Amino acid sequence: MATTTRAQVAPTTRTGRARRSGPPGEPRAIGWLYVAPALLVYGAFLLYPLVRSVQFSFYDWDGLGVGTWAGLDNYREVLRDEGLRQAFGHAFVLMLFFAVLPLVIGTALAAILNRARVRGLGFFRTVVFLPQVVAMVVVAVSWRRIYAPDGTLNDVLGAIGLDGLARAWLGDYTLALPAVGLIGTWFETGLVTVLLLAGMGRIDTQLYEAARLDGAGPVRELLAITLPAIRGEIAVALTLTVIAALKTFDLVYVATKGGPGNQTSVPSYEVYHQAFELGRVGLACAIGVVLTAVIFLISFLITRVGDRSEP
Amino acid sequence: MRVGRGEQTANYLILLAFAVVAVWPVLTIVGSALGKDGDAPGGLANFHRAWDAGHFATYLRTSLLVSAIVVVVATLLSIASGYALGALRFRGSTALFYLFLLGIMMPAEAIVVPLYFDLRSVGLTDTLWAVVLPQIAQTVAFGTFWLRAYFRTSSRSMVEAARLDGASSWTILWRVLVPPARPAITTLVVLTFMWTWNEFLIPLVMVTDDSLRTAPLGLAFFQGQYTQGFTLLAAGAVLVALPVVLVYLFLQRHFIAGMLEGAVRE
Protein backbone atom coordinates (compact mmCIF):
# COMPACT_ATOMS: atom_id res chain seq x y z
CA MET A 1 0.00 0.00 0.00
CA ALA A 2 2.80 2.38 0.97
CA THR A 3 4.32 2.50 -2.48
CA THR A 4 1.13 3.25 -4.36
CA THR A 5 0.19 5.93 -1.87
CA ARG A 6 3.53 7.60 -2.40
CA ALA A 7 3.14 7.50 -6.14
CA GLN A 8 -0.25 9.08 -5.76
CA VAL A 9 0.65 11.76 -3.25
CA ALA A 10 3.96 12.83 -4.72
CA PRO A 11 3.93 12.19 -8.45
CA THR A 12 6.75 14.68 -8.97
CA THR A 13 9.46 12.67 -7.21
CA ARG A 14 10.41 11.04 -10.47
CA THR A 15 13.97 10.13 -9.66
CA GLY A 16 13.01 8.44 -6.42
CA ARG A 17 10.47 6.27 -8.16
CA ALA A 18 12.55 5.52 -11.18
CA ARG A 19 15.35 4.16 -9.06
CA ARG A 20 12.96 1.85 -7.27
CA SER A 21 10.88 0.59 -10.11
CA GLY A 22 13.05 -0.08 -13.10
CA PRO A 23 16.02 0.65 -15.26
CA PRO A 24 16.24 4.06 -16.82
CA GLY A 25 14.68 4.00 -20.21
CA GLU A 26 11.88 1.60 -19.35
CA PRO A 27 8.77 3.48 -20.42
CA ARG A 28 6.62 4.43 -17.49
CA ALA A 29 3.40 3.88 -19.39
CA ILE A 30 4.09 0.20 -20.03
CA GLY A 31 1.75 -0.67 -17.14
CA TRP A 32 -1.14 0.65 -19.19
CA LEU A 33 -0.27 -1.74 -21.99
CA TYR A 34 -0.59 -4.70 -19.65
CA VAL A 35 -3.86 -3.49 -18.18
CA ALA A 36 -5.37 -2.48 -21.51
CA PRO A 37 -6.83 -5.83 -22.68
CA ALA A 38 -8.46 -6.57 -19.32
CA LEU A 39 -9.68 -3.01 -19.00
CA LEU A 40 -11.17 -3.10 -22.48
CA VAL A 41 -13.31 -6.18 -21.83
CA TYR A 42 -14.16 -5.01 -18.31
CA GLY A 43 -15.11 -1.57 -19.52
CA ALA A 44 -17.17 -2.76 -22.47
CA PHE A 45 -19.07 -5.57 -20.74
CA LEU A 46 -19.35 -4.40 -17.16
CA LEU A 47 -18.78 -0.67 -16.69
CA TYR A 48 -20.55 0.47 -19.85
CA PRO A 49 -23.66 -1.67 -19.16
CA LEU A 50 -23.73 -0.25 -15.62
CA VAL A 51 -23.81 3.29 -17.01
CA ARG A 52 -26.48 2.23 -19.51
CA SER A 53 -28.48 0.69 -16.70
CA VAL A 54 -28.60 4.04 -14.90
CA GLN A 55 -29.51 5.72 -18.20
CA PHE A 56 -32.30 3.22 -18.99
CA SER A 57 -33.72 3.63 -15.51
CA PHE A 58 -34.84 7.17 -16.37
CA TYR A 59 -36.92 5.98 -19.32
CA ASP A 60 -40.16 4.18 -19.83
CA TRP A 61 -39.37 1.53 -22.42
CA ASP A 62 -40.94 -1.78 -23.41
CA GLY A 63 -37.78 -3.06 -25.12
CA LEU A 64 -39.14 -2.72 -28.65
CA GLY A 65 -40.53 0.71 -29.52
CA VAL A 66 -39.24 4.15 -28.63
CA GLY A 67 -38.61 4.93 -24.98
CA THR A 68 -40.05 8.01 -23.33
CA TRP A 69 -38.32 10.10 -20.68
CA ALA A 70 -39.73 9.21 -17.27
CA GLY A 71 -37.47 11.13 -14.91
CA LEU A 72 -37.52 9.56 -11.48
CA ASP A 73 -40.87 7.80 -12.00
CA ASN A 74 -39.30 4.34 -12.06
CA TYR A 75 -37.52 4.98 -8.77
CA ARG A 76 -40.77 6.30 -7.28
CA GLU A 77 -42.43 3.10 -8.35
CA VAL A 78 -39.71 0.99 -6.70
CA LEU A 79 -40.47 2.79 -3.44
CA ARG A 80 -44.26 2.86 -3.75
CA ASP A 81 -45.34 -0.27 -5.59
CA GLU A 82 -46.66 -2.80 -3.10
CA GLY A 83 -45.19 -5.84 -4.89
CA LEU A 84 -41.73 -4.31 -5.28
CA ARG A 85 -41.63 -3.13 -1.69
CA GLN A 86 -42.52 -6.64 -0.65
CA ALA A 87 -39.71 -8.00 -2.83
CA PHE A 88 -37.17 -5.83 -0.99
CA GLY A 89 -38.78 -6.86 2.30
CA HIS A 90 -38.37 -10.51 1.35
CA ALA A 91 -34.68 -9.89 0.61
CA PHE A 92 -34.24 -8.53 4.14
CA VAL A 93 -35.99 -11.60 5.58
CA LEU A 94 -33.67 -13.77 3.49
CA MET A 95 -30.69 -11.99 5.06
CA LEU A 96 -31.71 -13.49 8.40
CA PHE A 97 -31.61 -16.95 6.88
CA PHE A 98 -28.55 -16.45 4.65
CA ALA A 99 -26.41 -14.42 7.05
CA VAL A 100 -27.56 -14.32 10.67
CA LEU A 101 -28.55 -17.97 11.15
CA PRO A 102 -25.38 -19.33 9.46
CA LEU A 103 -23.31 -16.95 11.58
CA VAL A 104 -24.88 -18.25 14.82
CA ILE A 105 -24.64 -21.91 13.80
CA GLY A 106 -21.21 -21.46 12.22
CA THR A 107 -19.79 -19.77 15.32
CA ALA A 108 -21.00 -22.61 17.52
CA LEU A 109 -19.67 -25.28 15.16
CA ALA A 110 -16.32 -23.60 14.66
CA ALA A 111 -15.95 -23.05 18.41
CA ILE A 112 -16.57 -26.75 19.03
CA LEU A 113 -14.08 -27.76 16.35
CA ASN A 114 -11.51 -25.29 17.61
CA ARG A 115 -11.84 -26.17 21.29
CA ALA A 116 -11.85 -29.91 20.96
CA ARG A 117 -9.11 -31.60 19.00
CA VAL A 118 -11.52 -33.74 17.04
CA ARG A 119 -10.30 -36.28 14.55
CA GLY A 120 -11.38 -36.09 10.96
CA LEU A 121 -11.41 -32.28 10.84
CA GLY A 122 -10.29 -32.27 7.22
CA PHE A 123 -13.10 -34.61 6.24
CA PHE A 124 -15.67 -32.54 8.13
CA ARG A 125 -14.45 -29.38 6.40
CA THR A 126 -14.74 -31.02 2.98
CA VAL A 127 -18.29 -32.12 3.74
CA VAL A 128 -19.69 -28.88 5.18
CA PHE A 129 -18.09 -26.83 2.40
CA LEU A 130 -19.52 -29.05 -0.34
CA PRO A 131 -22.82 -27.10 -0.80
CA GLN A 132 -20.79 -24.08 -1.94
CA VAL A 133 -19.60 -25.80 -5.10
CA VAL A 134 -22.89 -27.34 -6.21
CA ALA A 135 -24.71 -25.31 -8.86
CA MET A 136 -27.63 -23.39 -7.33
CA VAL A 137 -29.96 -24.88 -9.94
CA VAL A 138 -29.07 -28.37 -8.72
CA VAL A 139 -29.55 -27.22 -5.12
CA ALA A 140 -32.98 -25.86 -6.01
CA VAL A 141 -34.01 -29.05 -7.84
CA SER A 142 -32.91 -31.11 -4.85
CA TRP A 143 -34.73 -28.98 -2.25
CA ARG A 144 -37.88 -28.86 -4.36
CA ARG A 145 -37.89 -32.61 -4.01
CA ILE A 146 -37.35 -32.41 -0.24
CA TYR A 147 -40.13 -29.84 0.16
CA ALA A 148 -42.58 -31.55 -2.27
CA PRO A 149 -45.97 -32.77 -0.93
CA ASP A 150 -44.74 -36.37 -1.31
CA GLY A 151 -41.16 -35.35 -0.55
CA THR A 152 -38.59 -36.42 2.01
CA LEU A 153 -39.41 -33.75 4.61
CA ASN A 154 -43.04 -34.85 4.83
CA ASP A 155 -41.92 -38.49 4.93
CA VAL A 156 -39.72 -37.72 7.91
CA LEU A 157 -42.52 -35.83 9.65
CA GLY A 158 -44.84 -38.78 9.03
CA ALA A 159 -42.31 -41.23 10.40
CA ILE A 160 -42.08 -39.37 13.71
CA GLY A 161 -45.85 -39.00 14.00
CA LEU A 162 -46.11 -35.35 12.95
CA ASP A 163 -48.25 -35.95 9.83
CA GLY A 164 -50.33 -32.95 10.80
CA LEU A 165 -47.46 -30.61 9.90
CA ALA A 166 -46.99 -32.08 6.42
CA ARG A 167 -47.77 -29.71 3.57
CA ALA A 168 -46.56 -28.46 0.19
CA TRP A 169 -43.88 -26.28 1.76
CA LEU A 170 -43.02 -24.14 -1.25
CA GLY A 171 -46.70 -23.62 -2.06
CA ASP A 172 -47.62 -22.42 1.42
CA TYR A 173 -48.31 -18.69 1.65
CA THR A 174 -46.66 -18.10 5.00
CA LEU A 175 -44.00 -20.81 4.96
CA ALA A 176 -42.65 -20.58 1.39
CA LEU A 177 -40.28 -17.69 2.18
CA PRO A 178 -38.78 -19.30 5.31
CA ALA A 179 -38.51 -22.56 3.36
CA VAL A 180 -36.47 -20.81 0.65
CA GLY A 181 -34.51 -19.08 3.40
CA LEU A 182 -33.57 -22.36 5.03
CA ILE A 183 -32.06 -23.51 1.73
CA GLY A 184 -29.83 -20.45 2.06
CA THR A 185 -28.99 -21.34 5.65
CA TRP A 186 -28.00 -24.80 4.49
CA PHE A 187 -25.95 -23.31 1.64
CA GLU A 188 -24.03 -20.69 3.65
CA THR A 189 -23.42 -22.40 7.01
CA GLY A 190 -20.46 -24.44 5.76
CA LEU A 191 -18.75 -21.38 4.24
CA VAL A 192 -19.17 -19.40 7.46
CA THR A 193 -17.97 -22.30 9.63
CA VAL A 194 -14.80 -22.84 7.60
CA LEU A 195 -14.10 -19.09 7.48
CA LEU A 196 -14.51 -18.64 11.24
CA LEU A 197 -12.52 -21.79 11.92
CA ALA A 198 -9.59 -20.34 9.98
CA GLY A 199 -9.80 -17.19 12.11
CA MET A 200 -9.98 -19.13 15.36
CA GLY A 201 -6.96 -21.18 14.35
CA ARG A 202 -4.88 -18.01 14.53
CA ILE A 203 -5.76 -17.33 18.18
CA ASP A 204 -2.92 -17.98 20.61
CA THR A 205 -3.79 -21.17 22.52
CA GLN A 206 -2.11 -19.79 25.64
CA LEU A 207 -5.04 -17.43 26.01
CA TYR A 208 -7.37 -20.40 26.35
CA GLU A 209 -5.11 -22.17 28.77
CA ALA A 210 -4.92 -19.08 30.95
CA ALA A 211 -8.70 -18.76 30.83
CA ARG A 212 -9.12 -22.38 31.84
CA LEU A 213 -6.77 -21.97 34.75
CA ASP A 214 -9.07 -19.17 35.85
CA GLY A 215 -11.95 -21.64 35.61
CA ALA A 216 -13.65 -20.29 32.48
CA GLY A 217 -16.15 -22.62 30.79
CA PRO A 218 -16.74 -22.99 27.03
CA VAL A 219 -19.31 -20.19 26.86
CA ARG A 220 -17.13 -17.75 28.76
CA GLU A 221 -14.20 -18.70 26.55
CA LEU A 222 -16.25 -17.99 23.45
CA LEU A 223 -17.48 -14.58 24.61
CA ALA A 224 -14.25 -13.33 26.20
CA ILE A 225 -11.58 -14.67 23.87
CA THR A 226 -12.87 -16.18 20.65
CA LEU A 227 -15.46 -13.67 19.43
CA PRO A 228 -13.35 -10.54 19.98
CA ALA A 229 -10.45 -12.18 18.15
CA ILE A 230 -12.44 -13.10 15.03
CA ARG A 231 -14.31 -9.82 14.48
CA GLY A 232 -12.60 -9.42 11.12
CA GLU A 233 -13.70 -12.88 9.95
CA ILE A 234 -17.24 -12.24 11.19
CA ALA A 235 -17.36 -9.05 9.12
CA VAL A 236 -16.16 -10.93 6.04
CA ALA A 237 -18.67 -13.75 6.62
CA LEU A 238 -21.52 -11.26 6.98
CA THR A 239 -20.50 -9.36 3.86
CA LEU A 240 -20.34 -12.52 1.75
CA THR A 241 -23.61 -13.98 2.99
CA VAL A 242 -25.60 -10.73 2.93
CA ILE A 243 -24.53 -10.14 -0.67
CA ALA A 244 -25.50 -13.75 -1.47
CA ALA A 245 -28.93 -13.16 0.08
CA LEU A 246 -29.45 -10.05 -2.04
CA LYS A 247 -28.27 -11.78 -5.22
CA THR A 248 -30.54 -14.82 -4.88
CA PHE A 249 -31.82 -15.18 -8.41
CA ASP A 250 -31.33 -18.75 -9.60
CA LEU A 251 -32.64 -20.29 -6.38
CA VAL A 252 -35.91 -18.35 -6.55
CA TYR A 253 -36.22 -18.75 -10.31
CA VAL A 254 -35.97 -22.54 -10.16
CA ALA A 255 -37.54 -23.26 -6.77
CA THR A 256 -40.61 -21.00 -6.73
CA LYS A 257 -40.64 -18.47 -9.62
CA GLY A 258 -41.43 -15.93 -6.89
CA GLY A 259 -44.64 -17.72 -5.90
CA PRO A 260 -47.05 -18.55 -4.42
CA GLY A 261 -48.49 -15.15 -5.34
CA ASN A 262 -45.34 -13.10 -4.96
CA GLN A 263 -44.51 -14.44 -1.54
CA THR A 264 -40.93 -15.37 -2.44
CA SER A 265 -40.24 -12.67 -5.01
CA VAL A 266 -36.95 -10.83 -4.46
CA PRO A 267 -35.38 -7.78 -6.19
CA SER A 268 -33.00 -9.80 -8.36
CA TYR A 269 -35.93 -11.91 -9.57
CA GLU A 270 -37.96 -8.75 -10.20
CA VAL A 271 -35.19 -7.36 -12.44
CA TYR A 272 -35.57 -10.38 -14.72
CA HIS A 273 -39.35 -10.58 -14.40
CA GLN A 274 -40.02 -6.90 -15.14
CA ALA A 275 -37.57 -6.66 -18.04
CA PHE A 276 -38.06 -9.93 -19.86
CA GLU A 277 -41.53 -11.11 -18.89
CA LEU A 278 -43.46 -7.87 -18.43
CA GLY A 279 -41.48 -5.65 -20.84
CA ARG A 280 -40.85 -2.89 -18.31
CA VAL A 281 -37.17 -2.32 -19.06
CA GLY A 282 -36.79 1.06 -17.35
CA LEU A 283 -38.35 -0.17 -14.14
CA ALA A 284 -36.18 -3.30 -14.18
CA CYS A 285 -33.05 -1.16 -14.52
CA ALA A 286 -34.18 1.07 -11.65
CA ILE A 287 -34.60 -2.04 -9.46
CA GLY A 288 -31.13 -3.22 -10.51
CA VAL A 289 -29.58 0.16 -9.67
CA VAL A 290 -31.29 0.27 -6.27
CA LEU A 291 -30.21 -3.31 -5.57
CA THR A 292 -26.60 -2.47 -6.45
CA ALA A 293 -26.71 0.62 -4.23
CA VAL A 294 -28.07 -1.46 -1.33
CA ILE A 295 -25.32 -4.06 -1.81
CA PHE A 296 -22.57 -1.42 -1.85
CA LEU A 297 -24.06 0.37 1.15
CA ILE A 298 -24.41 -2.77 3.26
CA SER A 299 -20.94 -4.11 2.49
CA PHE A 300 -19.50 -0.65 3.18
CA LEU A 301 -21.27 -0.48 6.54
CA ILE A 302 -20.20 -3.99 7.56
CA THR A 303 -16.57 -3.29 6.60
CA ARG A 304 -16.60 0.02 8.51
CA VAL A 305 -18.02 -1.57 11.65
CA GLY A 306 -15.61 -4.51 11.34
CA ASP A 307 -12.62 -2.18 10.92
CA ARG A 308 -13.52 0.12 13.74
CA SER A 309 -13.94 -2.67 16.27
CA GLU A 310 -10.58 -4.14 15.28
CA PRO A 311 -8.33 -3.94 18.35
CA MET B 1 -6.04 -28.79 24.61
CA ARG B 2 -8.01 -31.34 26.52
CA VAL B 3 -11.70 -31.46 27.09
CA GLY B 4 -13.78 -33.95 29.06
CA ARG B 5 -14.82 -37.28 27.60
CA GLY B 6 -18.51 -36.49 27.79
CA GLU B 7 -18.01 -33.15 26.07
CA GLN B 8 -15.93 -34.82 23.37
CA THR B 9 -18.66 -37.39 22.63
CA ALA B 10 -21.28 -34.65 22.47
CA ASN B 11 -19.03 -32.71 20.10
CA TYR B 12 -18.71 -35.66 17.75
CA LEU B 13 -22.49 -36.14 17.73
CA ILE B 14 -23.08 -32.48 16.90
CA LEU B 15 -20.51 -32.56 14.10
CA LEU B 16 -21.96 -35.77 12.74
CA ALA B 17 -25.45 -34.26 12.74
CA PHE B 18 -24.24 -31.23 10.77
CA ALA B 19 -22.27 -33.34 8.32
CA VAL B 20 -25.45 -35.35 7.67
CA VAL B 21 -27.50 -32.18 7.14
CA ALA B 22 -24.85 -30.83 4.75
CA VAL B 23 -24.84 -33.91 2.52
CA TRP B 24 -28.49 -34.91 2.88
CA PRO B 25 -29.82 -32.93 -0.12
CA VAL B 26 -26.86 -34.15 -2.16
CA LEU B 27 -27.51 -37.75 -1.20
CA THR B 28 -31.24 -37.29 -1.85
CA ILE B 29 -30.50 -36.40 -5.42
CA VAL B 30 -27.89 -39.11 -5.97
CA GLY B 31 -30.24 -41.70 -4.40
CA SER B 32 -33.17 -40.59 -6.56
CA ALA B 33 -30.98 -40.61 -9.66
CA LEU B 34 -30.30 -44.31 -9.21
CA GLY B 35 -33.91 -45.28 -8.50
CA LYS B 36 -36.62 -46.68 -10.74
CA ASP B 37 -39.79 -45.16 -12.12
CA GLY B 38 -41.92 -45.17 -15.26
CA ASP B 39 -39.20 -43.78 -17.54
CA ALA B 40 -36.14 -44.89 -15.66
CA PRO B 41 -34.75 -48.41 -15.75
CA GLY B 42 -32.82 -47.88 -12.52
CA GLY B 43 -29.11 -47.80 -11.75
CA LEU B 44 -26.51 -46.18 -13.98
CA ALA B 45 -28.71 -46.69 -17.05
CA ASN B 46 -30.75 -43.71 -15.77
CA PHE B 47 -27.90 -41.37 -16.64
CA HIS B 48 -27.86 -42.67 -20.18
CA ARG B 49 -31.63 -42.15 -20.43
CA ALA B 50 -31.42 -38.63 -18.97
CA TRP B 51 -28.48 -37.84 -21.26
CA ASP B 52 -30.68 -38.49 -24.29
CA ALA B 53 -34.03 -37.22 -23.00
CA GLY B 54 -32.63 -34.00 -21.56
CA HIS B 55 -30.17 -33.12 -24.39
CA PHE B 56 -27.44 -33.11 -21.77
CA ALA B 57 -24.74 -33.97 -24.31
CA THR B 58 -25.38 -30.59 -25.96
CA TYR B 59 -25.67 -28.66 -22.70
CA LEU B 60 -22.52 -30.13 -21.20
CA ARG B 61 -20.60 -29.50 -24.40
CA THR B 62 -21.69 -25.85 -24.42
CA SER B 63 -20.81 -25.50 -20.74
CA LEU B 64 -17.40 -26.99 -21.34
CA LEU B 65 -16.74 -24.67 -24.27
CA VAL B 66 -17.95 -21.57 -22.38
CA SER B 67 -15.95 -22.46 -19.26
CA ALA B 68 -12.80 -23.20 -21.26
CA ILE B 69 -12.92 -19.88 -23.13
CA VAL B 70 -13.72 -17.85 -20.01
CA VAL B 71 -11.03 -19.57 -17.93
CA VAL B 72 -8.26 -19.24 -20.54
CA VAL B 73 -8.98 -15.69 -21.67
CA ALA B 74 -9.81 -14.29 -18.23
CA THR B 75 -6.73 -15.90 -16.65
CA LEU B 76 -4.38 -14.50 -19.29
CA LEU B 77 -5.91 -11.02 -19.06
CA SER B 78 -5.84 -11.15 -15.26
CA ILE B 79 -2.18 -12.18 -15.18
CA ALA B 80 -1.28 -9.19 -17.34
CA SER B 81 -3.41 -6.67 -15.46
CA GLY B 82 -2.56 -8.10 -12.03
CA TYR B 83 1.11 -7.77 -12.96
CA ALA B 84 0.66 -4.19 -14.06
CA LEU B 85 -1.22 -3.15 -10.92
CA GLY B 86 0.86 -5.24 -8.55
CA ALA B 87 4.43 -5.01 -9.80
CA LEU B 88 4.67 -2.10 -12.24
CA ARG B 89 4.20 1.41 -11.01
CA PHE B 90 2.46 3.88 -13.25
CA ARG B 91 0.22 6.87 -12.96
CA GLY B 92 -3.43 5.98 -12.43
CA SER B 93 -2.78 2.46 -11.12
CA THR B 94 -4.53 3.10 -7.80
CA ALA B 95 -7.61 4.49 -9.51
CA LEU B 96 -7.64 1.51 -11.86
CA PHE B 97 -7.44 -0.85 -8.91
CA TYR B 98 -10.55 0.69 -7.34
CA LEU B 99 -12.29 0.55 -10.69
CA PHE B 100 -11.72 -3.22 -10.86
CA LEU B 101 -12.75 -3.58 -7.23
CA LEU B 102 -16.14 -2.14 -8.14
CA GLY B 103 -16.76 -5.10 -10.43
CA ILE B 104 -16.22 -7.69 -7.71
CA MET B 105 -19.23 -6.60 -5.72
CA MET B 106 -21.42 -5.65 -8.63
CA PRO B 107 -24.35 -8.05 -9.10
CA ALA B 108 -24.99 -9.36 -12.62
CA GLU B 109 -28.57 -8.15 -12.15
CA ALA B 110 -27.32 -4.57 -12.45
CA ILE B 111 -25.89 -5.02 -15.93
CA VAL B 112 -27.75 -7.87 -17.57
CA VAL B 113 -30.75 -5.87 -18.82
CA PRO B 114 -28.94 -3.12 -20.81
CA LEU B 115 -26.36 -5.70 -21.86
CA TYR B 116 -29.06 -7.81 -23.45
CA PHE B 117 -30.64 -4.95 -25.38
CA ASP B 118 -27.31 -3.48 -26.50
CA LEU B 119 -26.01 -6.87 -27.65
CA ARG B 120 -29.31 -7.51 -29.40
CA SER B 121 -29.01 -4.28 -31.36
CA VAL B 122 -25.61 -5.40 -32.70
CA GLY B 123 -26.89 -8.92 -33.39
CA LEU B 124 -24.80 -10.66 -30.74
CA THR B 125 -27.52 -12.23 -28.62
CA ASP B 126 -27.98 -15.94 -29.15
CA THR B 127 -24.28 -16.34 -29.78
CA LEU B 128 -21.54 -17.82 -27.65
CA TRP B 129 -20.01 -14.33 -27.34
CA ALA B 130 -23.01 -13.01 -25.45
CA VAL B 131 -22.52 -15.71 -22.82
CA VAL B 132 -18.73 -15.58 -22.71
CA LEU B 133 -17.75 -11.89 -22.84
CA PRO B 134 -19.77 -10.62 -19.83
CA GLN B 135 -18.41 -13.48 -17.76
CA ILE B 136 -14.85 -12.71 -18.82
CA ALA B 137 -15.46 -9.13 -17.67
CA GLN B 138 -16.74 -10.33 -14.28
CA THR B 139 -13.84 -12.75 -13.85
CA VAL B 140 -11.22 -10.21 -14.87
CA ALA B 141 -12.40 -7.99 -12.00
CA PHE B 142 -11.75 -10.69 -9.43
CA GLY B 143 -8.68 -12.08 -11.23
CA THR B 144 -6.93 -8.71 -11.41
CA PHE B 145 -7.63 -8.14 -7.74
CA TRP B 146 -6.45 -11.64 -6.80
CA LEU B 147 -3.22 -11.69 -8.81
CA ARG B 148 -2.38 -8.07 -7.99
CA ALA B 149 -2.39 -9.08 -4.33
CA TYR B 150 -0.13 -12.00 -5.18
CA PHE B 151 2.35 -10.10 -7.35
CA ARG B 152 2.66 -7.35 -4.73
CA THR B 153 3.95 -9.83 -2.20
CA SER B 154 6.26 -11.73 -4.55
CA SER B 155 9.96 -11.26 -4.27
CA ARG B 156 11.14 -7.82 -5.37
CA SER B 157 14.78 -8.81 -5.25
CA MET B 158 14.28 -11.41 -7.98
CA VAL B 159 12.58 -8.83 -10.16
CA GLU B 160 15.36 -6.31 -9.50
CA ALA B 161 18.00 -8.90 -10.35
CA ALA B 162 16.26 -9.79 -13.62
CA ARG B 163 16.03 -6.11 -14.47
CA LEU B 164 19.73 -5.60 -13.87
CA ASP B 165 20.32 -8.48 -16.27
CA GLY B 166 18.40 -6.47 -18.81
CA ALA B 167 15.23 -8.57 -18.90
CA SER B 168 12.19 -6.86 -20.38
CA SER B 169 8.99 -6.47 -18.40
CA TRP B 170 7.48 -9.25 -20.53
CA THR B 171 10.31 -11.69 -19.72
CA ILE B 172 10.16 -10.78 -16.04
CA LEU B 173 6.45 -11.55 -15.94
CA TRP B 174 6.61 -14.95 -17.64
CA ARG B 175 10.04 -16.19 -16.54
CA VAL B 176 10.37 -14.72 -13.05
CA LEU B 177 6.93 -14.00 -11.62
CA VAL B 178 4.53 -16.52 -13.16
CA PRO B 179 6.33 -19.81 -12.32
CA PRO B 180 6.19 -19.35 -8.52
CA ALA B 181 2.66 -17.93 -8.86
CA ARG B 182 1.33 -21.25 -10.14
CA PRO B 183 -0.65 -22.09 -6.97
CA ALA B 184 -2.35 -18.68 -6.96
CA ILE B 185 -3.13 -19.06 -10.66
CA THR B 186 -4.52 -22.57 -10.11
CA THR B 187 -6.83 -21.18 -7.43
CA LEU B 188 -8.03 -18.51 -9.84
CA VAL B 189 -8.58 -21.15 -12.55
CA VAL B 190 -10.67 -23.50 -10.37
CA LEU B 191 -12.78 -20.65 -8.95
CA THR B 192 -13.38 -19.24 -12.43
CA PHE B 193 -14.29 -22.68 -13.70
CA MET B 194 -16.81 -23.14 -10.87
CA TRP B 195 -18.38 -19.69 -11.22
CA THR B 196 -18.66 -19.99 -14.99
CA TRP B 197 -19.98 -23.55 -14.97
CA ASN B 198 -22.62 -22.68 -12.34
CA GLU B 199 -23.64 -19.29 -13.79
CA PHE B 200 -27.34 -19.06 -14.53
CA LEU B 201 -28.65 -15.53 -15.12
CA ILE B 202 -26.34 -14.49 -17.98
CA PRO B 203 -26.94 -17.56 -20.21
CA LEU B 204 -30.66 -17.47 -19.31
CA VAL B 205 -31.01 -13.94 -20.63
CA MET B 206 -28.55 -14.09 -23.52
CA VAL B 207 -29.56 -17.24 -25.42
CA THR B 208 -32.77 -18.92 -26.51
CA ASP B 209 -31.16 -21.36 -28.93
CA ASP B 210 -31.24 -24.81 -27.33
CA SER B 211 -27.76 -25.69 -28.60
CA LEU B 212 -26.28 -22.69 -26.76
CA ARG B 213 -27.82 -23.49 -23.40
CA THR B 214 -25.36 -24.22 -20.65
CA ALA B 215 -25.83 -27.18 -18.30
CA PRO B 216 -27.58 -25.41 -15.36
CA LEU B 217 -29.90 -23.69 -17.84
CA GLY B 218 -30.61 -26.99 -19.58
CA LEU B 219 -31.45 -28.55 -16.24
CA ALA B 220 -33.91 -25.77 -15.40
CA PHE B 221 -35.61 -26.24 -18.76
CA PHE B 222 -35.66 -30.01 -18.37
CA GLN B 223 -37.38 -29.49 -15.02
CA GLY B 224 -40.03 -27.34 -16.69
CA GLN B 225 -40.75 -29.76 -19.51
CA TYR B 226 -40.30 -33.11 -17.89
CA THR B 227 -42.80 -33.62 -15.10
CA GLN B 228 -43.57 -37.35 -15.22
CA GLY B 229 -41.18 -38.30 -12.45
CA PHE B 230 -38.17 -37.22 -10.52
CA THR B 231 -35.62 -39.92 -11.37
CA LEU B 232 -34.42 -38.62 -14.74
CA LEU B 233 -34.41 -35.04 -13.44
CA ALA B 234 -32.24 -36.14 -10.53
CA ALA B 235 -29.92 -37.97 -12.92
CA GLY B 236 -29.63 -34.80 -15.00
CA ALA B 237 -28.91 -32.78 -11.86
CA VAL B 238 -26.08 -35.15 -10.96
CA LEU B 239 -24.62 -34.78 -14.46
CA VAL B 240 -24.70 -30.97 -14.13
CA ALA B 241 -23.14 -30.88 -10.66
CA LEU B 242 -20.58 -33.64 -11.14
CA PRO B 243 -17.77 -31.84 -13.04
CA VAL B 244 -17.36 -29.11 -10.41
CA VAL B 245 -17.78 -31.54 -7.50
CA LEU B 246 -15.05 -33.78 -8.97
CA VAL B 247 -12.65 -30.87 -9.37
CA TYR B 248 -13.54 -29.81 -5.81
CA LEU B 249 -12.74 -33.23 -4.38
CA PHE B 250 -9.27 -33.17 -5.96
CA LEU B 251 -8.41 -29.50 -5.50
CA GLN B 252 -10.47 -28.56 -2.44
CA ARG B 253 -7.62 -26.61 -0.86
CA HIS B 254 -7.74 -24.21 -3.78
CA PHE B 255 -11.52 -23.78 -3.54
CA ILE B 256 -11.51 -23.15 0.19
CA ALA B 257 -8.39 -20.97 0.23
CA GLY B 258 -9.58 -18.98 -2.76
CA MET B 259 -13.06 -18.29 -1.48
CA LEU B 260 -11.83 -17.38 2.00
CA GLU B 261 -8.67 -15.42 1.17
CA GLY B 262 -10.27 -13.77 -1.81
CA ALA B 263 -12.90 -12.43 0.55
CA VAL B 264 -10.54 -11.57 3.39
CA ARG B 265 -8.22 -9.56 1.16
CA GLU B 266 -11.05 -7.30 0.15
TrEMBL record, chain B:
Membrane topology: Multi-pass membrane protein
Transmembrane feature ranges: 12-34, 64-88, 95-117, 129-151, 172-197, 230-251
Coiled coil: none
UniProt keyword annotations, A-Z: Cell membrane, Membrane, Transmembrane, Transmembrane helix, Transport
Main localization of the protein described in the UniProt heading: membrane
Ranges where the ABC transmembrane type-1 domain occurs: 60-251
InterPro entries reported for this sequence: MetI-like, MetI-like_sf
Family: Belongs to the binding-protein-dependent transport system permease family.
This protein's name: Carbohydrate ABC transporter permease
Organism: Luteipulveratus flavus
Lineage of the organism: Bacteria, Bacillati, Actinomycetota, Actinomycetes, Micrococcales
